[in-house]
Structure formats: structure tokens, C-alpha cells
Amino acid sequence: MSNNEITVLTIRELLSSGTKYVIPIYQRNYAWGSDEISQLIQDVIDYASSDKKNKDYYIGTLVVSRGNNDGAFETIDGQQRLTTLSILTASIRNKYPEINCGFFVDLNLSYESREKSTRSLQNVYEYNLSANDMEVNILSAYNICIKHLSEQLKEHAITIEQFTNYLYDFVKVLRVPLPNDIDLNHYFEIMNSRGEQLEKHEILKAQLMAVFNECEQDDIPLLELCFDIIWQSCSNMESYVQYGFSVKQRNEIFQGETWDILTISNFDELVEKLRGKFEKENNGALKTIDEILNESPLKSESLSAADYPDKFNSVINFQNFLLHVLRVQHVGIKEDIKLDDKRLLDIFDPFIKVERISKLEFVKDFIFNLLKTKLLFDKYIIKREFTGNSNRWSLKSLRKQEDSNTSSARYVPTFTDADGDYFDSDNRRILMLLSMFHVSNPSMSYKYWLYAALQYLYEQFEVNSSNYIAYLEHIARAFVFDRFLMNESLAAKKEYNNMIQDNRHPVYRDLNTLDVQKTYFNNIENNLVFNFLDYLLWLKYKRENLDSRIKSFEFSFRSSVEHYYPQTPIDKDLNKLSNDIVHLFGNLCLISNDKNSRLSNLKPASKKEYYPLTSPIDSLKQYFMMSMDQWGSDEIRSHGEAMISLLRENMHSNYSPL
Q1: Could you tell me if residue 169 is inside a domain?
Q2: Based on the domain organization, do 25 and 148 belong to the same domain?
Q3: Which pLDDT band, with edges at 50, 70 and 90, does 464 fall under?
Q4: Are residues 445 and 491 located together in one domain of the fold?
Q5: How crowded is the C-beta side of 394, counted as CA atoms within 13 Å?
Q6: 164-202 as b/e, with b when 16 or more CB fall inside 10 Å?
Q7: Considering the domain boundaries, does residue 217 fall inside one?
Q8: Interhelix angle for 356-380 vs 220-235, to 10°?
Q9: What is the per-residue pLDDT across 539-595, written as a single tens digit (0 to 9) for each?
Q10: Distance CA 269, CA 164 (A)
């Protein structure tokens, strides 16, 4: 092989010790977290468990250069993926000894002039996790790999053998060596300014709009124009959909007094309403598509400062949102619509390759449902709102400003309560439920809770806050008890689709269906178990004013299960407890990977001192654990029994859509 040969490598070949890789000093530190690692594992599982399990899956390129490192490759682009694959394989090698990782006989990755990073990677490889001076990001990544791989294997009913067979022999990377005489500074300049390829949703948009070519020629420009306005308005998931329309257009298609209710019931009605506006604005003639698309609705009207919050972050991206809309539109064939944007074009393909009239009706229905569902999403699904120097979960509607000019808008809580107590309001309770779901599954794909919420919202004529709360709690109980805590010797684990579609009536569960064994360490299948318990604790204690922090508690992205009493104490005055005790639910809580890496082996008293009394609470379960003066075997058992009892008290659901 010449030094300049592009090579296709399996992951087995990539990680074999024959070739060395060095991360040069000018590269940033390793930075992948839970979202990126979880998505990588999910992608491999998707392919390993599908009809593509015997086909190759390319996960990108590895751009390298021959440096002065004893013949090793300097990694120019792709170091995050390469480091993660090394850490993931180390975790598999350590946790699953039955898997033959003989190819991984030595670590072939190091960091130039970063001894701590190299040493930390080596410690992870050698299963020396308690070593001093570990790089936090590398140790956190290792723990994330252990946790997410175990959870996702259980979730998708795939064995570690199936996963590793596919990962090491069918997942491939393209190693691209740069010429020896290349100017690396010039390469980086080109790499950072290069054009981006078309996104899948942009290709889909073109395919859908092409259907209008079969309509009457005179109608095509207006149909394409209206389609494009809706698509553009909905594609920015971090902005409210109304902002994609000019104020005059808003007044036509949204209720004039509020702007948060549609006045149309299908795409054809929207076309007719906007036809007049376009012709009137252009002296009786329809503007060209280029003229319309080059105008910015946000700049063409005078908007108030209230229209512009610092920033909203969405819980889902546009490509995955399109799949949710398709599912909502076609509930009856939900099993064929996977909530996975990697398959976006394949999933839409059958709907746009049918007879002309059906195809046209599908496109018109879909673009209208996209508008309707985005309006519901903006109004009834949480966002992360960044204002000033803070950020919080937000559940707000955009409303037309009262007693003001026609271009002014404001954000108000979606549900308002007469007593005005935000922390005890329906709006706050719905926000807690939605954020509980999201932090339990922060990845963009397979958000079954979001599909459940959107389907519910889509089917409602009016959304009542009490009924919405009852439904979200109903779905939470179904996921927690029928999916993650079900005693499978008494009943089969239920599929998400069945829980969403069939559990639309009161459910009274046998208390014995809660399998206590599934609350032990390494048996907990999803963080929703911890987060739902925190929600129940918040409901129970928020009115007692034990601590104002309970009332103001918010869910955050915590994905690491901590043993409050450490598995391997480093304090000489602390005895090591048996696994039968230390792995009990009463000793477990959910915290961030960073904190778990820092605190994992400290004694409970030292962990307690780490948290200032004025700081926000990470976990309500942890809060009540730390409130005890002593923490040992008796406290672990009694706290665990209390938490299991609270879960059992909340197994039943009285929700009914009737």
C-alpha cells in the first residue's frame, strides 16, 4: 500500500495494533458526550438488526497525514469518532469478556504532547478506572458507552454478539491520506469553508414539490410557492412557525385576534387565501417564485423587540419532525414509519411513487399537516429558552399583542392559571412531564413520547390542560411499568406503538407486575425510571415548602447512575459493602457523568459536602438520600423500600379520552 492510497477499513482493521494514530497538539480535546455516543451506538444497532445486517455501513472518513511520529498517522479529521470507537471497544472488552477482542491487543491511539489524555485512554483500555488524574471527558465517555450499550441492546432485543459482529466487520471508515507535501494550514482553510451537501430533507422537498408538475400549468407556480412558504416556515425548529409568514399572511391563515389558531382546514384553502394577497401586492399579477422567495417575512414588516427572544432550542430536528408528521397523518400504517431520519427518503418513497391523484392528495395533505403539527408543536411542546444569562425549559405560545399595532407579538405561558402561582400551575406540571421525557431520551430519533404527544394534540379540537396532564402521565406510566419494570414472567413487555395506540383507557395494574429486580444496578433499562420517580417526588413534596429548591426543581441532562455509597471506597474508614446491598435501588441516583467521574469513590459525607445548600437540586431522589445523617445498609434498604412503594402507589392510570 502506498502512503497516498485511500483505504476502506473495517473497525476491526482500524483498531488493530499494526497501524498507529496520533492526535496532533493543534487538535481540540476529546469532546463527545452522551448524545453523540448514544447516536453512534444506535446507528450500529439499527443496521445490525435490520434487513441491512449483511451490508456495509460507512460512518465517515478519517483524514490523516504522515507526520514525524515514527511512521504513525496524524489524525487531521475524524479524531472524535476514532477516539470513541477505541473507548467503546475498551468498554466491550472489559464488560463482555465472552467477546473475542483479540484484534485489540494494544491501544493504537495516542495524543501528541498530552500525556494526561494518553494515560487516561490507556487506563480505560487496561480497566484501571480508579487511577488518579484521569481525563474527565474520557472517563465519562467510557461510562456512557457501558450504560448506553447495555440499555440499547436490551431496548432493541439484540445480543452483544450480534452488535459486535456487525460493528467490527461491516461498519467501515474511509481512510484518506493527505499528500506529504500539502500545506496543512491551507487544507484547514479549505475544509472549514467547503460547501455542504444537500440535506435529506432538502432532497425530500424537491421530490414532493415535483408532484405539482402533473397539475395544470397555470396552477403550478402558486402551488409551489405556497408549499415552499409552509416548508420554510416549519423547517426552523427553533422559531415559531408564524414568523415564516408576513404579518398580512398571518392575519389570513391564523386567527386574527391571537395568531395561534389556524383559520384554514386544508392546503387548497391556504392557496386560495394567499392567492389574493400575492396578486394584490403585485398590482393584480402573481409575483414570480424568485421574487417571493427572496423576500424575508421578518424584514418586510416592522416587528417589535418582543418577537425576538435570545434563543429557543428545539427538542428535535426538522428531519425527524417530518417523520412524526408522517406518522400522525398515517396512524393506521405506523409500523412502517420508523422514527429514524437516516431512512427519511426510503420511508417517504412509497407515498410519492403511487398513482397521480393519490400522490397529489398525499403531498397536499402532508404539507398542511406539517403546518398544523408545527403550530401544535410550538404551542404545546417544550423548548429550551435562553434569555439573558440563564436558560430554562419553556412552554409558551406566541400571541398577537393586544392593543398594539398589527405587527407586534409576545410570548405567554400556553396554559394560564387563575391563582398565578407558576410553580404550582398546570403549565409548569406539563413542562415538567415533557422535560422528564426529553432528558430521558435526548437523541433526535425514536422519540416515542413526542409522537404520543403530537398524536394526542393533533386529534384534539381543544387542548385542555387537565386532560393533557392526565394523558402524559398515562403514557409515562405505560412506558415505565409496561416497558421497563414489567415482570416478564407475568406478562410480555409491550411495544411502544401498542402502548400509544391501545392504552387509551383506564389501566389498573397488578402490583406484582413491578419487578423489583429491574430496579437493581445494571438492570434499569432507561433513565425514565429515575426521572419519573423524581417527578412523583416533586408532585408529593412541592407544596410542603421543605426547601424552596424542591418547588423550583427542573429536569436536566443526567445520564450516569451513581452509587451514593461507593462500590469501591477510597476512604480507609469506610467498609466495602456487598454487591447485594450496594446495587440496590435505594443506593442509586441519577447524576451527570462529570459529577459521577469526580465523586464516584468518595464516601457519602464527602459527596454531600460537594453540593452547596444553595445550588439547584440535580436529583430529588439524591436530595432525600443526602438529607439523612447516616448512610449505610439500613438506610439503603429503607430508602429503597420507600421509593418502590411510591412507584407502586402510582402504577394505575385513570385516563380515558371519552
Answers
A1: yes
A2: yes
A3: very high
A4: yes
A5: 26
A6: bebbbebbbbebbbbeeeeeeeebeeeeeeeeeeeebbe
A7: yes
A8: 30
A9: 999 877 778 889 889 999 888 888 999 988 887 778 889 999 999 999 999 988 777
A10: 53
pLDDT digits (tens, 9 = 90+) for 54-103: 788 888 889 888 766 567 888 888 899 999 999 999 999 999 999 988 89
| Four-point Cα dihedral 323, 324, 328, 329, nearest 10 | -30
CA–CA dist 161, 525 (Å, integer): 19
**Do residues 544 and 594 share a domain?**
yes
Last residue of a domain, one of 348, 379, 414: 414
Say how many CA atoms lie within 13 Å of 557 toward its Cβ. 14
Q: Does one domain contain both 435 and 366?
A: no
Per the structure, the count of domains in the chain is 3
Averaged confidence pLDDT in the chain: 84
- The pLDDT tens digits of the residues spanning 402-411 come to 655 556 778 8
Q: Which domain holds residue 129?
A: 7-193
Other Cβ atoms within 10 Å of 350 Cβ, number: 11
**Cβ distance 355 to 362 under 8 Å?**
no
Tell which of 414, 440, 464 closes a domain: 414
Q: Which among 560, 558, 555 is positioned nearest to 597, based on CA atoms?
A: 560
221 with 181, same domain? no
Instruction: Place 2 in a pLDDT band, splitting at 50, 70 and 90.
Output: very low
Whether residue 655 is contained in a domain is answered as no
pLDDT-based confidence at 516, cuts 50/70/90? Answer: very high
Residues 174 and 81 in one domain: yes
Q: Which whole-number Å values give the CA distances from 357 to 177, 362, 553, 622, in the listed order?
A: 51, 9, 53, 59
The answer as to whether 421 is a domain residue is no
The whole model's pTM is what?
A: 0.81
Whole-angstrom distance, CA of residue 538 vs CA of residue 529: 14
Grid coordinates standing for 580?
Answer: 447485594
For residue 276 the three cell numbers come to 389574493
pLDDT digits (tens, 9 = 90+) for 431-447: 999 999 999 988 888 89
